[in-house]
Specification:
The chain is mainly beta. Helix content is 8%, strand content 62%. The protein contains two helices and 16 strands. The chain has helices at 12-26, 30-33; strands at 41-51, 54-55, 60-61, 64-65, 69-73, 76-86, 91-98, 101-109, 116-132, 139-157, 161-165, 168-180, 185-193, 196-204, 207-215, 218-227. Strand 12 (168-180) and strand 13 form a beta hairpin.
Length: 228
């Protein structure tokens, strides 16, 4: 597939937001950062549902476009882990990753009779800056912005042979809330948006097949958080 770049870097806005939040950390007085009462680490184990909104707008075969053709990728559930470090009671850095989710890339439209084009496992590794609002009783709402790398594993041919799909960078946004069970344990629920584009290629009957693949997954997670 031939990647068609977008006119602007999609990671610029969330990355700028992350840098702004981290610069706020550097400006925070040392006495606040060294508070002995602050639990610095937050480790969360989640069950994450990946809702996919996909589009392949420029499928070509042997260099010729195939109008009316597209692909479909099903939703998936996978276990995930995120690890946060609090610089202050409000500002944290967070790393999110998990077991790669399985996906079948199925043909639709004009190429629908081909069936499953390929199979793959995929998942993002996300670095975010988070802002945690003042707690509302036992509720602890937060937001995050960052950047992630979407990785693809275990690529298997279907109707396409020599299938390949490339890893991709993506901006990310997050909304979440935690419910305090006690001083150490919390319930967690959050939603992440990870829009990205990649390109994929393969061969059909000896002819090269190419496309750009736009995927806008929404990751919804529920889990348990340990603060320490």
């Amino acid at each position: 597939m031939i990647f068609i770049p977008k006119p602007a870097d999609p990671t610029a806005l969330p990355l700028a937001g992350a840098l702004f939040l981290l610069s706020t950390v550097l400006a925070t007085p040392a006495s606040a950062q060294n508070s002995p009462k602050l639990k610095r680490w937050a480790v969360t184990v989640n069950a994450t549902e990946v809702f996919v909104d996909e589009n392949a707008p420029n499928i070509t075969l042997a260099g010729a476009p195939l109008p009316g053709s597209n692909v479909r990728i099903g939703n998936a559930t996978t276990p995930t882990l995120d690890v946060g470090y609090f610089f202050t009671p409000n500002i944290a850095a967070n790393v999110f990753f998990g077991v790669p989710a399985p996906a079948e890339i199925d043909s639709t439209g004009r190429i629908g009779p081909l069936g499953t084009l390929a199979k793959v496992h995929y998942g993002p590794v996300i670095l975010s800056a988070q802002y945690h609002f003042k707690s509302q009783g036992k509720l602890h709402p937060y937001v995050g912005v960052g950047v992630g790398r979407v990785l693809f594993f275990n690529k298997h041919d279907g109707a396409l042979s020599d299938f390949n799909i490339r890893d991709s960078w993506a901006p990310t946004g997050q909304l979440g809330v935690r419910y305090e069970l006690n001083k150490s344990w919390m319930l967690n629920a959050d939603v992440r948006y990870v829009p990205f584009s990649t390109h994929a290629s393969g061969s059909l009957g000896g002819a090269p097949a190419l496309t750009r693949l736009d995927i806008d997954p929404i990751l919804t997670s529920v889990g348990v958080t340990l603060r320490f």
